[in-house]
Amino acid sequence: MSVRLDHGDVDLDEVHEINVTPFIDVILVLLIIFMIAAPLATVDVSVDLPSSNTPRQARPDKPIYLTLKTDLSLTLGNDTINRSALGASLDQISGGDREQRVFVRAGKTVPYGEMMTLMNELRTAGYLKIALVGLEGDTLQ
User: Fold this and answer.
1) Cα(127)–Cα(132) distance, rounded to whole angstroms?
2) Position 140 pLDDT exceeds 60
3) Lesser CB count within 10 Å: N end or C end of the chain?
4) What is the Cα–Cα distance from 84 to 75, expressed in whole angstroms?
5) pLDDT of 34-72, one tens digit each?
6) CA nearest 50: which of 101, 115, 100, 102?
């Protein structure tokens, strides 16, 4: 029995095909890792927004306070107003100056969606300078 070890030509032909199986395996493993890690990256934290620990800001001479009560009624200064008359009431109290800052107050139990609706109504009325009022907490050191 004889075996021929010489295949004739010494030069081997080049293979121009890429083996993509290991590449696909790595991509699938990375996909699985990201699918598992993505939901873990989100944070669910309860937030108590009304308190603040920033230093006290200088108050203007005649501040415009807009209060959103727990029953979702609006008070501008000390007067209760309708939501439909918000823009006209703000124009009247500010003298038409839409550059004045509006201080918005709301209770802790007011839904966040209602607060955002009020902010959007202020924006459509042309009042873009809005400050949120909260209780003073401990100042930062």
Assistant:
1) 13
2) no
3) N
4) 13
5) 888 887 766 444 444 555 666 666 666 778 888 888 888
6) 115
